[in-house]
Amino acid sequence: MHWSMRPRRNLPTFFELHMRQYSQRPVEEQRELFHDEEFEKEHKGYMQSIIDLMYDNYDAFKLLICSAEGTKYSRFIEDIAELDERYTLKYIEDTGNDVISSGRAGRLLIHQLCSSYMYGFFEVIRHDMSKEEARVHTAQLQSFFSHGWDKLFNP
Q1: Which domain holds residue 70?
Q2: 31 lies in some domain
Q3: Which of 28, 34, 64, 81 could make an SS bond with 115 (beta carbons 3.0 to 4.6 A apart)?
Q4: Contact between residue 51 and residue 132 where contact means Cβ atoms under 8 Å apart
Q5: Per-residue burial over 134-155, b = 16 or more CB atoms within 10 Å of its CB, e = otherwise
């Protein structure tokens, strides 16, 4: 993937494409999200491709993640978190999951979890991790959140 110097537009589009493709799957497939080994491999590969993109453009991402305050890119992570939140709510609606209607979670918790995941993901840049450390960290983060979401959605 070629990187232009408009990361706010490109990476969120990259995220949205992945989320949109998943949301277009049959509902029964979506319901098996946390128990589908193929999806897990696909998602891990997708997240690793984002790490490749970030580390291929490390200096730009370092500026974006650590020094964008006061610029038009200052909401970069929030924009991606909001996208994740929107697709999580769509997943809940499309699959008929009762996580919100049952009271196990509210919209604010969904928002907090999506934001926490995205901020955690980009910490690899903020903390100057090597690409290999970032791969390990991201896999651990994914595992943690995947188990948490599963417990919330499927008590």
Answers
A1: 41-153
A2: no
A3: 81
A4: no
A5: bbebbeebbeebbeebeeebee
